[in-house]
Amino acid sequence: MQVSNNLRFLIFIVLFCIVHFTVNAQYTDDNANLSIDKKDDKYGYLNKKTKAVVIPHQFDEAKTFYEGLALVKKDGKEYVINPKGETVIPPNESLIYHFDRFVNGLLRIQNKADNKLGFIDKTGRIIIEPTYLGVENFWDSGLALAYTKPMIPDGYIDKTGTLVIKNEYDHLYDFTEGMAMVMLDGKYGFINTKGELAIPTIYTFENDVSNFSNGFASFKNDDGACGYINKKGEVVIEPQYKYCNRFENGEAAVVDFDDKRIAINAANITVKDIDKEFADKVRKDSLKVAQHLGCIEGDCENGFGTYNYLDTSDEDLIYSYKGFLKMGNTMGQD
């Protein structure tokens, strides 16, 4: 059976997502088992498996559950509910809760009076007063980027609001696995949670160095081939691939210069022939034409959600997966 290039690429995305999860995959709604549903211009929540209504359609806006809590808006007021639909954090006339998720037990808030930012915990208690012009989430290592002036962060604060790492660079990025990318004079390196420069700022924008995952970060050499370094900055997999993606569960999806798609382990041993899985899946399901129906639930705006694919020859659902839709690396992002 002949397989079109478009279909091969489509199935690659699906299989690729099996071995390629996001850095923030732990911040999902796996403990709620609820999906957002819209009916008569109102939002409620359904049981993901049975599709039964769990929380009635009553909200003007509704966010996905994270860490067992979700933000909703009704009659112009924002508040936080649990999976039973009970209010756990009531509306606050002086605060805005519009930063859509709890991360490691904290939610960013905004003071209505001056638009400055801080954090509350899951009881609604203010943990860090809203005094910052900008602040990132505590994604990793208990540290978050904080700004008291535009564009340039002060450095990293801890969960008491104390500035524990002062900015000495042109730009800072979020911590992942205890390492944060930094930029100085147009070159990139990494600091550790003590603020020490663990990997010198030797990488250019063209080197496309990624954040760490499973202890590895991808990078490109001057010829455009990519490989991986460890947290000491040592090259552990020599640049030899056309595309490299993050390690998850000990595996990374890569593409060689013959456009062969494989999954490798930390020893650079092939553990999965993704191209072969394309063909096997196509033969098994006898697929002819597949149509991407888009994201149906989850954090669709940021690329984290459940995506459906349809066999347009008989309109049967052929794929439904939850994962990371984006591909490739972006400097300072993944």
So how many helices? 2
- Low-pLDDT parts are 1-30, 286-290, 314-334
Mean pLDDT: 81
User: Sheet with the most strands?
Assistant: 4 strands, antiparallel
Structural class: mainly beta
Strand portion: 35-45%
Number of DSSP strands?
Answer: 29
Q: Record the strand order, biggest sheet.
A: 4-5-6-7
| Overall 3D form | flat
Q: What's the Cα radius of gyration?
A: 22 Å
Q: State the separation between the terminal residues, measured CA to CA.
A: 35 Å
Write the layout of secondary structure elements.
Layout: H1 5-19, E1 34-39, E2 42-47, E3 53-59, E4 61-62, E5 70-74, E6 77-81, E7 87-89, E8 95-96, E9 107-111, E10 117-120, E11 126-132, E12 134-135, E13 144-147, E14 155-157, E15 163-166, E16 171-176, E17 179-184, E18 187-192, E19 197-203, E20 217-220, E21 226-229, E22 235-241, E23 243-244, E24 252-255, E25 261-264, E26 270-273, H2 274-285, E27 290-299, E28 304-311, E29 316-324
Antiparallel strand pairs: 1-2, 2-3, 4-5, 5-6, 6-7, 8-9, 9-10, 10-11, 12-13, 13-14, 14-15, 16-17, 17-18, 18-19, 20-21, 21-22, 23-24, 24-25, 25-26, 27-28, 28-29
Helix pairs in contact: 1-2
